């Protein structure tokens, strides 16, 4: 019996050549999470799928189950073709896709993460609060992966605005006396609420997310960071 087709909405997060004229595409979808699908003949210029199957474009997908965890892409339609992201923000959008490609393997709905991804792309496209957007998405991704940062002390108590804490990736936050590396409880609680209204809160959020993501990524290289630095160097902005 032939496999039944089903519909979903999603985005291309990665694609590569598969055999002669096809593509193997990784999608981030609303109802099935991260899935991989073969787009037959999509590499051909004459095939309309090639123009549609671009990152950052919302797609209506018609999919069919294949062997194991692999799917076949029967059809796709762009829901909105006017979704261009210009430099340098394109590197930020690519960064989101790299994080999803390397870290997110869940084949089940994650509506909160999917909504965060859409909002992040919209903000990046319109150049609106891009730094805040990246930190918010990172926190949401870590939570979806089961590695969310727990803003409690090592005894399970709420962080006190008046106290100071040190942080390690394995032990979390533990109370300490004031020193140059200590983090004030009030600042930590601000970050926990995702209230990135100051340079200090943004820097701390970046530090916490960077440490957590680095541990998960291991030896994997985020190429968008390298390309962004190269862009700044060529543009004379560094």
Automatic annotation (TrEMBL):
Presence of the UniProt keyword Metal-binding in the record: no
Keywords: DNA damage, DNA recombination, DNA repair
Keyword DNA damage in record: yes
UniProt-listed GO biological process terms: DNA recombination; double-strand break repair
Superkingdom of origin: Bacteria
SUPFAM superfamilies hit by this protein: ArfGap/RecO-like zinc finger, Nucleic acid-binding proteins
Domain DNA replication/recombination mediator RecO N-terminal intervals: 8-77
GO cellular component, one term: bacterial nucleoid
Listed InterPro entries: ARFGAP/RecO, DNA_rep/recomb_RecO_N, NA-bd_OB-fold, RecO, RecO_C
Stored Pfam families: RecO_C, RecO_N
Stated role: Involved in DNA repair and RecF pathway recombination.
Family: Belongs to the RecO family.
HAMAP family for the chain: RecO
Name used for this protein in its record: DNA repair protein RecO
Organism: Anaerobiospirillum thomasii
